[in-house]
């Protein structure tokens, strides 16, 4: 009897842990600075979380299926650069307007899909470790964007940027587009993960790919699809990113891959695969952005220690979950 | 294959001097690769200086190598000594510590050594030291801030990547605004990065309802700061002062943009100064050893034309 209660309490801890962490941060923020819970600050934080968030949803599927993608940050920088070049090139022909923006968006989605498929094909068809493949493509995309920008910064034409800007800053009912798109991606991701064969197959492959294969799951195909979807989502994130400052350089998207992976793990997805939770990833993303936000809003600790605090919270989140996994 | 390539390299190295005149001198230039805006500009000016001097002085040959990390830079320098027998080395060290030994070896081989911007860990190796003035950069920025806000005011400061360079700049700035009635509300690290600066500035705007001016201390960070101010629609901020001399910012100063009334230089073209002076030292009797500190200059609409290089990537 006693043992059952203990297991129950512990089981719920994996679910409740990240939520409690998020609530604790919200309370701490509200106590430290009265502006923290203001509408402006909360929408700022949500909008800036959207890039990592959209990518992290895709990463949740990749990790659940037992994979990993280190290239997403560089890929985002490369796609942003490509998008800016395409739009600037097409500008004289198309003029400032919706067609040129749509062209930019299509470029981002196609480039993202292509880059994701390339990673996926190398991993599934040639059987190379995902860590190695994506470490390689990480370096390749980072160099490519530096090369495209000639070592400097690629900037979107100023008038075009002003026209495209509402995609980041505008919105409906006071909620900006990045937040809306992020929410949509999360809802679709949650449904796919929970209620479709694809989501179940990801978990099955991550948990034991041999058994999945014997159960006639198309292991290679499903894995390929996770990388392709992630690449596409990187494209979506870039579509939101470019209108913000209208530029891309080799400093764009640095360490986004690690932030996305950390968010996925904080949210309760198992790093070695087999179990994924999309809504948990959202909590993970919010926790990471809120820490940065709170540290900026207070003079509580030296800014030199921001990284240390973020690191400590990531480890703490995973420790909480490990404890509850120990029985299972 | 590897043997073939290295064999080829040796063959090229051996044959090159045979075609050259006896009194031809070789200058090696080793710089970090264009991994951020300022370094991109520095690469551009290095290449331009090499092309120009190569044409101007037939008796000089140049070898230009860019390195993406310190160990690659060490290899570059060793290769220059081994295969090109350089008479002079112009080096902008990636990091001081790892490059000190290799540059010392070059010096011992009898070559002239010019060190640019980042000093080595051991003093007295270089014949010529060309560098920007970081405390001066902060001081010029602070003096401008004090003059632009004669009645004092509230400002926020964005700092760079935590380094000695950043500390020297901020100290210079703080000394210059002392007693001017300017109050620094907050300082955070924007890491010389547009996106980080955007985030930090958004949070500053949430935290402080009234800000008179921003010292972004860098033009890339100024871009992020301006983005955050525009998005928040805040009217209280009078101006943003960046730094370094990015062409887009110089253009805005030139066009009398009220938000960007001035800029403070930290020119990536200092590499060109270093190469030029080294070349003069090799081909003439003019003495060129010593320290050459390039001051940070305040750019205003009146003199902005002199600092505007539309072809440079930075």
Present the secondary structure layout.
The complex is a heterodimer of chains A (328) and B (314).
Chain A: H1 2-32, H2 39-64, H3 72-94, H4 98-124, H5 130-148, E1 153-155, H6 158-164, H7 166-169, E2 171-172, E3 175-176, H8 177-195, H9 197-207, H10 209-214, H11 219-245, E4 247-249, H12 256-266, H13 278-297, H14 306-325
Antiparallel strand pairs in A: 1-4, 2-3
Chain B: H1 2-19, E1 25-32, H2 37-56, E2 60-67, H3 70-84, E3 88-91, H4 96-108, E4 112-116, E5 128-132, H5 134-148, E6 153-159, H6 164-177, E7 182-189, H7 194-207, E8 213-215, H8 219-232, E9 239-241, H9 247-254, E10 263-264, H10 270-283, E11 290-294, E12 298-299
Parallel strand pairs in B: 1-2, 1-3, 3-4, 4-5, 5-11, 6-7, 6-8, 8-9
Antiparallel strand pairs in B: 10-12
Signal peptide (chain B): 1-20
InterPro entries (chain B): Peripla_BP_I, SBP_2_dom
Subcellular location (chain B): Cell envelope
Question: Could you walk me through the main structural features you see in this protein, from its secondary elements to its overall organization?
Answer:
The complex is a heterodimer of chains A (328) and B (314). Chain A is mainly alpha-helical and 328 residues long. Chain A has a single domain (17-322), classed as Orthogonal Bundle (ABC transporter involved in vitamin B12 uptake, BtuC), CATH 1.10.3470. Chain A is 77% helix and 3% strand. In chain A, the strands form 2 sheets. Chain A has a two-stranded antiparallel ribbon. In chain A, a hairpin with a 2-residue loop joins strand 2 and strand 3. The longest helix of chain A is centred in the N-terminal third of the chain and has 31 residues, at 2-32. Chain A starts with a helix and ends with a helix. Chain B folds into 2 domains: 2-132 and 268-294, Rossmann fold (3-Layer(aba) Sandwich); 134-264, Response regulator (Rossmann fold, 3-Layer(aba) Sandwich), CATH 3.40.50. Chain B has helices at residues 2-19, 37-56, 70-84, 96-108, 134-148, 164-177, 194-207, 219-232, 247-254, 270-283, and strands at residues 25-32, 60-67, 88-91, 112-116, 128-132, 153-159, 182-189, 213-215, 239-241, 263-264, 290-294, 298-299. In chain B, helix 7 packs across helix 8. Chain B: It is found in: Cell envelope. Chain B: Residues 27-274 form the Periplasmic binding protein domain. Chain B: Residues 1-20 form the signal peptide.
């Amino acid at each position: 009897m006693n043992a059952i209660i203990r297991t129950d309490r512990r089981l719920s801890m994996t679910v409740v842990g990240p939520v409690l962490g998020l609530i604790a941060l919200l309370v701490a923020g509200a106590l430290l600075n009265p502006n923290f819970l203001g509408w402006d600050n909360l929408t700022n934080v949500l909008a800036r979380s959207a890039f990592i968030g959209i990518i992290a949803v895709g990463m949740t599927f990749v990790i659940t299926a037992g994979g990993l993608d280190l290239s997403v940050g560089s890929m985002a920088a490369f796609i942003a650069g490509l998008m800016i070049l395409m739009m600037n090139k097409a500008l004289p022909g198309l003029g400032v307007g919706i067609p040129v923006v749509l062209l930019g968006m299509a470029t981002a989605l196609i480039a993202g899909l292509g880059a994701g498929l390339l990673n996926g094909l190398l991993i599934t068809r040639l059987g190379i470790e995902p860590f190695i493949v994506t470490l390689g493509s990480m370096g390749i995309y980072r160099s490519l964007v530096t090369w495209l920008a000639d070592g400097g910064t690629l900037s979107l034409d100023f008038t075009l940027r002003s026209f495209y800007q509402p995609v980041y800053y505008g919105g409906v009912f006071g909620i900006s587009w990045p937040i809306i798109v992020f929410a949509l991606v999360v809802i679709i991701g949650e449904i796919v993960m929970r209620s479709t064969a694809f989501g179940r197959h990801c978990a099955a492959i991550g948990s034991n790919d041999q058994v999945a294969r014997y159960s006639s799951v198309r292991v290679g195909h499903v894995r390929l699809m996770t990388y392709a979807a992630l690449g596409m989502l990187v494209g979506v994130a870039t579509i939101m990113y470019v209108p913000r400052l209208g530029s891309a350089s080799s400093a764009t998207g640095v360490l986004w891959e690690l932030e996305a992976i950390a968010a996925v793990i904080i949210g309760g997805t198992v790093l070695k695969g087999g179990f994924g939770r999309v809504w948990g990833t959202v909590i993970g993303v919010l926790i990471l952005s809120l820490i940065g936000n709170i540290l900026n809003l207070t003079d509580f600790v030296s800014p030199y220690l921001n990284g240390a605090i973020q690191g400590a919270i990531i480890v703490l989140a995973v420790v909480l979950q490990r404890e509850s996994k120990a029985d299972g | 294959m590897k043997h073939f390539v290295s064999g080829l390299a040796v063959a090229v190295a051996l044959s090159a001097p045979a075609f050259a005149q006896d009194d031809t001198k070789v200058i090696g230039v080793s710089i970090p690769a264009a991994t951020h805006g300022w370094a991109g500009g520095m690469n551009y000016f290095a290449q331009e200086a090499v092309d120009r001097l190569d044409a101007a002085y037939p008796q000089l040959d140049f070898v230009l190598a860019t390195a993406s990390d310190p160990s690659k830079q060490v290899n570059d320098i060793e290769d220059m000594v081994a295969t090109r027998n350089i008479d002079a080395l112009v080096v902008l060290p990636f990091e001081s510590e790892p490059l000190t030994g290799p540059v010392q070896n070059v010096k011992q081989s009898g070559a002239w050594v010019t060190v640019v911007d980042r000093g080595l860990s051991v003093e007295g190796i270089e014949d010529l030291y060309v560098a920007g003035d970081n405390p001066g950069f902060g001081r010029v920025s602070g003096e401008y801030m004090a003059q632009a806000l004669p009645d004092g005011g509230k400002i926020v400061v964005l700092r760079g990547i935590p380094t000695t360079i950043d500390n020297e700049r901020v100290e210079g700035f703080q000394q210059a605004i002392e007693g001017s009635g300017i109050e620094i509300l907050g300082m955070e690290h924007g890491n010389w990065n547009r996106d980080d600066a955007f985030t930090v500035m958004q949070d500053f705007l949430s935290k402080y309802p009234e800000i008179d001016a921003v010292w972004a201390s860098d033009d890339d960070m100024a871009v992020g700061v301006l983005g955050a101010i525009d998005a928040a629609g805040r009217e209280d901020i009078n101006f943003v002062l960046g730094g370094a001399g990015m062409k887009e910012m110089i253009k805005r100063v030139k066009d009398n943009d009220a938000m960007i009334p001035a800029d403070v230089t930290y020119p990536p073209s200092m590499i060109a100064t270093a190469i030029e002076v080294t070349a003069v030292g090799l081909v003439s009797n003019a003495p060129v050893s010593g320290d050459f500190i390039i001051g940070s200059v305040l750019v205003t609409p009146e003199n902005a034309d002199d600092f505007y290089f539309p072809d440079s990537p930075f």
